[in-house]
Amino acid sequence: MIKKIIAAFVITATITTSLFATPGDKVEAAYYHTKAISVAKANLGVPYRWGGITPTGFDCSGLVKYSFGKAGVPLPRTAADMFYTKGYRVSSPQVGDLMFFAPNKASRPTHVAIYIGSGKMIMASSSKGVIITYTSNTYWKPKYIGAKRI
């Protein structure tokens, strides 16, 4: 009986949420993803700085935090905090999703990038600063642990 009540509640909540969601919700999400990517692209070439969160120097999570912040979406400071506390996991990244990487599949994420489409991501690289690279990059691909939509 309790299972039936819970199921009915979940179905009602889902229908109610979808009835009151507006087409603008998707437009707004597309806007802040596009804005965050534009901000990140405007910082191409900015040097890497460990702990950096400004255009004088970024580390990976600093670039993501700064870019989404300028788009009106506050994020935590570290890749791990972003991974564990924000958004929801997706199996196939879409433009604007965050991609997370770890030294091995069992460890906490230590790197984050923004997926920009066409198999590319923008990130702060410790060797090259803010760059665009392919998700199939031989260094990053084996370290990929998942994507989240914010």
- Please give the alpha-carbon distance between the first and last residues: 36 Å
Q: What class, by secondary structure content?
A: alpha+beta
Strand order of the largest sheet: 3-8-4-5-6-7
H/I helix tally: 4
Chain-averaged pLDDT: 85
| Number of domains as seen in the coordinates | 1
The percentage of residues in β strands lies in 15-25%
Give a short account of the largest sheet. Answer: 6 strands, antiparallel
Can you give the helix content as a percent range?
25-40%
How many β-strand runs?
8
Helix and strand sequence: HHEEHHEEEEEE
What is the CATH fold-level name? endopeptidase fold (from Nostoc punctiforme)
User: Which parts are unreliable, with pLDDT below 50 for 5 consecutive residues or more?
Assistant: 3-25
CATH C-level name: Alpha Beta
- What is the correct CATH architecture? Alpha-Beta Complex
* Gyration radius, rounded: 17 Å
* Overall form: globular
Descriptive account of the structure:
With 150 residues, this protein is an alpha+beta fold. The protein has one domain: Alpha-Beta Complex (endopeptidase fold (from Nostoc punctiforme)), CATH 3.90.1720.10. The chain is built from four helices and eight strands, in the order H-H-E-E-H-H-E-E-E-E-E-E. A six-stranded antiparallel beta sheet has the order 3-8-4-5-6-7. A two-stranded antiparallel sheet has the order 1-2. Strand 1 and strand 2 (57-58) form a beta hairpin. The radius of gyration is 17 Å and the shape is globular.
